[in-house]
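Below is one such protein, fold included:
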Amino acid sequence: MIAWVLNSERPRHAPRSQALIDAITLRYWTDHAASRPSAKTIKRELRLIHAWWDGKTVADITPDAQRRFRQHLTELGTGPGGIDRILSTFRAALNHARKNEEVESIPFIAGFRPTEELRSREPKGRPLTLEELARLIDGAQSRHTLAYLWLAIGTLARPAAILDLTVTQYDADNGVLTLNPPGRVQNKKWRPVVPVAAALVPWLAPDAADAKTGRYVTYRGKPITSIIAAFRIARAAAGLDARVTPYSIRHTMARELRKARVPGEQISLFLGHLPSGAASTTAVYAPYEPEYLADAATAINNVMHRLAALVRNSHRPAPDAETTGKAIRHGIGDEKRQQVRRLILEGVPHAKVKELTGVSDGTISSIRKVLRAEALALRATK
């Protein structure tokens, strides 16, 4: 826990020279940030802020001091995106103090990257062709990876929202899926209520979820907090480059909806980009209208059917398969198997074989055992 000292009395409209940054950041944490879904990340960012500005006041936040703070973060190895997030948290803490009349005024906190750069930056993951997306699905090495991919395709949701999904969020009677779980406070990354495409329904059936947790994406019966490791394995097996990330699915589907001439407003709502002032009405009542986001749902359904025709691995997981965490038994194919055999016989280390082929550790070990058995049989014959 953050160990800061805070006086019990709050100064009202304190001048900048008396408002301690330590106190302001702690109040922001206790009053607001500690209860947010991203609390762990915010805590790390506040610790970095506190370490640099320890004992200083708001009056010390000069343009030159900000420049040195940004340089300090760079020297720590923080990337441009990370620095911008830390500065955003710093800005939020100061705004919280101003709104609560703890300080008379606050300085402007400049971002690390200019607005023009942010607008022109590439998306978090490059979009895929449907053929590439089909290869990614075929590259899934576990049941939970396969479930994640199809849910991501059918919902366009962010990775965290998919990992949080439980059976209680699916309203089969009305054909809608509430991407925001009960008890979670909505933030700027809004999780909407979306209609469920017909092709997605089998993936949301009660027997597709873990019996104990009710979650659709679990590993050995337990919830997971990140899909990155499993995704990288599938990406390697598919022969895709490192620019392909879990966000690539979201961007791919948004592009497919554009190509299908789905109205831009429907795409924005599906992605959780609500127009200003629309959250209270659009998110609560509109999803239960028969035609709500109907064009988007139809386009998603068409894409899922096209993908099903391209992939081998389109089947829904068996009811009890998700609790095992075992690799999917769809085989790696003769060509891939021969590649692994050749690399092993050439003396390539296990880790390098895995990197080059995208094949799981267990499969490589199994092939190695077969090769040893063949070698022993050959010696016995001689």
Notes: Residues 1-10, 317-330 have pLDDT under 50 and may be disordered. The longest strand covers residues 176-178. DSSP finds 16 helices and five strands in the chain. The CA atoms of residues 70 and 83 lie 7 Å apart.
